[in-house]
């Protein structure tokens, strides 16, 4: 099948088919205006596929956008007999999402992974080509799944070709390989026109039509068929303007208007029924008294084709039929379709038709739509839930009930990743309609909508949560306590960018709240603990935080509770230097997020865990976690701002000695400020201080670190106190060093953790002399050796060696400095390794630079897969971990084996050690 003037586009599609033949996967988006030839290109690639390629086609239908996972279900129907090959969680999530089983609401990303796995299983029997037309009209839940699959396919022999109309606010596929379709060249357009004109065609008329249509193939073919012979020969003037572009729909409308009334009514029924189900349309037609031959004139006019389903010649025909009909006729059509939609499994579709048929508020229909919303939520169809609830609100008679439904719809919109829709729903509310509880819910929804939109609302979120807690009050005490906890969470995130409240005001509100006595819930302990730190000091708040973490880690904490609280709990651990508890909290957060498909939570958990490993000196582990997060953000289609924010400043500072690093750290901070992520800004500043410490620029480090400590009301920067002691004493500011040491002493005593005590002892050595100093250095080295904190151990060796050299004990200094160099080089801390080598050289010993770490021949993804395989994970387990298919894992693992010259996982453990 050849297409005039589409050689380049056909070549792109041919390359998709060639990839399938090579056992690889490809995704491609065809983007262009209506009639430009997208469907024809899908027809081309479907017909050009080899006989062993199984072709699947599905098209978005504008009227079906409110039905959860509708398009995904249609695509996967042929493969449900393979469902038992999927991991149980994925299988169950997919079946629930498609309405084939009951169960807890499925996370949409877990459904997406299940769709990828199912298609990969199907492709193991032969290549698959999935053609998705009119993607802009897919239901939102299916779009998420299709986009996820398109970003994760690699070695499964799966091709996905999407056709998307321009001029619609559709961005779900952004970032995928894309071909923007333009009009045909004049020569190709002339060929199309001559092919459809049965008689003579004047050259000047042809040129005029080609110019007017801009080479749009559909407009060319329609005009060639519809203009009279006289007009085409040049004997009569062409109509002005020609029916092209936005006027093409009006052209179809004129064709529809010329049909008999019964045919127009029948077409309206077909346009109003998104499934195109001929039996249902015919039943509705019978209810309206239409004759059996009513659709025949529409078929004769080539406006629609009828088999077991009705298909319009082009979506613009459907649009022309539906939008051109009077509102009363549309309502009558929907009433008839509702009467014909009687199966229990079609309850949602019946309710949708009834809603479209409603002239004004209708309490019974609104109630049914609310039940539809809950059924959608039970399947994980949060986008559909929003649509049902929003329409239910419109049809609700009582103002307060209408407001409540709008608030619940806004909450669902936030969950569905539609923050702008959430704001729109909330902006339409009259505050007088809201009771206190709904007002609190609306505030929380508005806060989270802003956070999701990334417009700086993180800075405002704590204040909005405090206002929500006040609104909930005694009427909803659990919601009030949750809102106060969230206020703490977002205050920690916003730090110095906090707006609308202060840490002091937040602490006062939390401590004034009537909490249960005694405090036993982890969430409550963490909230009150941080408020106590802010109001009364670290030493009073730290024990509460320790109890909160202990309660969270206790048996009986649900997965949902852990995902809700883990971020605050990790902060509570790290300000006490409790790496054992932090590790337990983060590992469970990663496990829960991975099992349930909560990818955004998993991304944050991996980032946070990489920070914890960086602080301990496990830089290789941290880098692997960063790579895994990279995989997830790629699957989710992260924005450029998110990529910048999720760089790891501290890891960069330890690793790099390059001159460009300060500019990179500044870029991270600059990207974080508009989003309100003050914590990321502060991490970038700490990274700058680390780089300054490593290169001996102590006054610069001192200034930066002091700024971090000043105004740190929640004590989240407790960890920098030891660095501040070092920077201040080396800068000659003993007063500041002593103040920082006193703070560290108080907090180490309150925390009672080995790491904090070691940092205090090491820092005390810097401010003492003689035997006392040496005893402190020795004790710090000895005790840090028994912890996991390798970076701080290396720094203890370095500081001790530097002190010994200044005490003229060069031989003793060399022992410590050699240990420091070896540790820093083994860790990969470039700047500090160089500082230790300079000190060692100053003792008179030639400082031998260690061998440059060998760069792995493996790509980052291959390295991650190799590490997981080395540690015993199966291909299926690796696939679930990295949100890939098992086929792609196998493909990369075979490349790993070739590069490392091994043939088995056992050999891999030797060739690719920890």
Structural commentary:
The chain has a 5-stranded parallel sheet, with helices on both faces. It starts with 6 loop residues before the first helix and ends with a helix. The chain has 47 helices and 7 strands. The chain is globular and about 110 Å long. It has 914 residues and is mainly alpha-helical. The chain folds into 6 domains: 7-180, Rossmann fold; 186-239, no CATH class; 252-326; 341-434; 595-600 and 612-842, Serine Threonine Protein Phosphatase 5, Tetratricopeptide repeat (Alpha Horseshoe); 860-911, Winged helix-like DNA-binding domain superfamily/Winged helix DNA-binding domain (Arc Repressor Mutant, subunit A), CATH 1.10.10.10. Helices cover 65% and strands 4% of the residues.
Relevant terms:
914 residues, mainly alpha, Rossmann fold, 6 domains, two-stranded antiparallel ribbon, 4% strand
SS-derived structural category:
mainly alpha
Highest-level CATH class of the largest domain: Mainly Alpha
Which word captures the global form?
Answer: globular
What is the CATH third-level topology name of the largest domain?
A: Serine Threonine Protein Phosphatase 5, Tetratricopeptide repeat
The CATH architecture of the largest domain: Alpha Horseshoe
The number of helical segments is 47
- CATH superfamily grouping of the largest domain: Tetratricopeptide repeat domain
**Strand-residue proportion:** under 5%
Q: How far apart, in Å, are the first and last alpha carbons?
A: 55 Å
Strand element count: 7
Helix content: 55-70%
Report on the biggest sheet. Answer: 5 strands, parallel
Ranges with pLDDT <50 over ≥5 residues? none
Number of domains: 6
Order of strands in the sheet with most strands:
2-3-4-1-5
Summarize model confidence as the mean pLDDT.
Answer: 88
Domain HTH luxR-type: 851-914
Keywords: ATP-binding, Nucleotide-binding
InterPro entries: AAA_16 (IPR041664), P-loop_NTPase (IPR027417), Sig_transdc_resp-reg_C-effctor (IPR016032), Tscrpt_reg_LuxR_C (IPR000792), WH-like_DNA-bd_sf (IPR036388)
Organism: Cryptosporangium minutisporangium
